[in-house]
Design goal:
Keywords: Oxidoreductase. This is 5,10-methylenetetrahydrofolate reductase. The protein is 43% helix and 16% strand. The chain contains 14 helices and ten strands. The strands form two sheets. It has an eight-stranded parallel beta barrel. It has a two-stranded antiparallel sheet with strand order 8-9. Helix 10 (223-232) runs antiparallel to helix 11.
Amino acid sequence: MALLNFRKKAAQGDKPVNPELEAFLKGYSIEVMPRTAAKVEDFRALLPEGTRVYIAHIEGTPIEDMVATAKRIKGEGYDVMPHFPARIIKDKATLENWISMYQGEADVKQALLLAGGVANPHGDFSDSMQLLDTGLFDKAGFTNLHVAGHPEPNLDIDPDGGRANTYAALDWKQEHSKRTDASMALATQFCFEAEPVIEWANTLKERGMNLPIHIGIAGPAKLQTMIKFAIACGVGPSLKVLQKRAKDVSKLLLPHEPTEVLTDLAAHKAAHPDFNIEQVHFFPLGGIKTNANWAIENGGASAQPAAAQQD
């Protein structure tokens, strides 16, 4: 009953829930890694039932650990979406084996396909398009296939700082979405400022891109931690939001919360219901529990988590 009481306190406390933000957070997803998931005793104490949980596959993580994590989280009542990083998958046989392991152990039918953070491919694949081209995900009956989106220029894809290669890849993925029975969407890198995200999303729509966007947002974390991850992940122009805050020494040790960027995006969505950002995807840089509690406090759990329902 403790979580139920906590949610009532959050809803009835001094801070009222912003209805636009609450609506925007509905159905949010969150990302974990096997080592961070292992620190959570029971996800049902933190996340609404049915939340989509991405499982990040970092180079060096054994596939057995990934599959075990997917099985555990699936067993607690959540939709699991493991990463398939192209550059660490040796060949088609390896990919087919991963798919078979995920489906045999955890009944996985959703995947995030991306190039991955490795500079040099370990084998035959270098990008998500090559993974899609194998046809293995369709053959295995995957229902949801997400691919990466980049609201800010990505130097790994477009070294000149432009967007030509990024747009070409998105056009290819848009066409592929017409050839698969799986639902496709763009899951983006995290960012800290609403205006460039809105401009990017509108540009995609103007170019004929109709894949829904799941916008990446960094969950609450110490400012120093946030800046470290932002630089490591190649976050570009919106990093200035953090750098400006960092000039105030008194704020360096305080958590940076996503309230401002999400409130701005939620207001835009409320004013423009056809805005193509459909969901929020959290990167819990300051910890899963911290991120989940922030979401609860801001209305991001329209239904009681399973653990609370069973009390």
